[in-house]
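ok trying this again, last paste got cut off
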Amino acid sequence: MLLEKDGIAVLMDPGNYTLEENAFHVDDLDHLDFVLITHEHEDHMSVPLLKTIIEKFPDVRIITNGVAADLLAKSGIQASIQAPDFVEMVAIPHEKVLALAPHNTLFHVFGEITHPGDSLQFTESKDILALPIQAPWGSMVAALEKAVEVKPRLIMPIHDWHWKDEARRKLYKMAANYLRERGIEEFRGLEVGESIDIIHS
């Protein structure tokens, strides 16, 4: 997820699926100021992709938690645990997985967007929620119930790589109908490479 506001460009969780699917092209960016990483799983933190990003944007600042920062340091990548003023970091548990669960960080960005990483264990959201809608550790039902609980204005589904495109589109439609009946009007799934304006200056 690439966020841009007031001339600041922020990339969220550049992972190996993004790299393997050829879904993000560093060369298409004119500038990149920050990379925010919620946790160390490869689908959120791809070292090869980060090295490509740093090669083009050597001044980019990578922000993450201490565990992920230590792992990146072993690969020669410098990361900070200190966020800029427009980013709020909150430690929340990663959902249960078959291996040891990593340290997970929720980010509130620009005071408008919430990105919880691999967690549904949060109690509030900003106006826009990047909702992890599917995962080996969770279900669409649990994700949608969380969305109804925190009631953002707009939901951007994330973490849906495991779905085939046809299934994903059908499930997005089902999710949008479910949420609309419960007072959340905007659910906006994106196709690979699609971009939209959602943050208002």
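PB: full thing came through this time. The first strand starts at residue 2 and ends at 5.
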